[in-house]
Amino acid sequence: MAESPLAAGRRFVAAVVLAGVMAPALAVVPDIVPPNWAELPPQKQQILTPLAGEWNQLESWRKKKWLEISDRYPQMAAEEQQRIQRRMKAWVKLTPEERKAAREKYKNVQQASPEQREALKKMWSEYQTLPEEERERLKQSAGRSSTSKALPKPGGGHPAAKPATPVPLGATSEPSGAAIQPIPARSPQ
After folding, report:
1. Nearest in space to 38 (alpha carbons), one of 23, 48, 26
2. Residue 31: its pLDDT value, please?
3. Which residues of 90-113 are buried (b: 16+ CB within 10 A; e: fewer)?
4. pLDDT above 70 for 146
5. Which of 25, 53, 93, 127 could form a disulfide with 175 if both were Cys (CB 3.0 to 4.6 A apart)?
6. Residues 132, 162: contact at Cβ < 8 Å?
7. Is the pLDDT of residue 64 over 70?
């Protein structure tokens, strides 16, 4: 039996509505590829200057993270801007193995319990109060020891020992295997 024009019209409208609802789910949206160095605006190039030599080889997701940082950079305090610049400069001097070790340390700290993190903060604080000569000696001995150290047990740890501190994306300290600066606690904004 032939379908009535009214039923055919309803079926057509239903198909169009269904297609309209399903289209966004089925559409393939290409990833937005962050720009190459030459395509960055001058202000972003100035902020990200330490990364200029390797920018075009960075993975897209790393470029996006750095671009997010460069967006926030103008609103940062001068001290925070200087810290970012120091860390970028130190990061580019690291070998791939040193970068991998820094990322692993950061990952381990992120997975640590709040007690372990607090112990790390305390150890870092104690390390910062040491005389420069003692800190240099610890940096040298840390360079000779293994790069994967266990996190301290809550309430434990040697007060003069160099802590395994977190390393934010793209951040590190001197390339000589020196201690990595901790991320200062941020107040909610």
Report:
1. 48
2. 62
3. bbbebeeebbebbeebbebbeebe
4. no
5. 93
6. no
7. yes
Q: How confident is the model at residue 161 (pLDDT cuts 50, 70, 90)?
A: very low
Tokens of 71: 């967006």
Sorting pLDDT into bands at 50, 70 and 90, what band is 5? confident
Quote the CA–CA distance of 78 and 73 in Å, as a whole number. Answer: 9
pLDDT band at 73 (very low <50, low <70, confident <90, very high): very high
Distances (CA, A) of 90 to 44, 77, 85, 118: 19, 20, 9, 26
Helix (H) or strand (E) holding 87: helix 78-93
DSSP annotation of 27 reads: -
Distances (CA, A) of 114 to 118, 119, 153: 6, 9, 11
State the CB neighbour count (10 A cutoff) for residue 118: 14
Compute the distance between CA of residue 24 and CA of residue 174 in angstroms, rounded to an integer: 48
Residues shown for the chain: 189
Share of the chain above pLDDT 70, in %: 65
Mean pLDDT over residues 89-117, rounded?
91
Burial of 45 (0-12, 13-18, 19+ CB in 10 A): middle
List C-alpha distances in Å: 184 to 1, 66, 158.
76, 19, 22
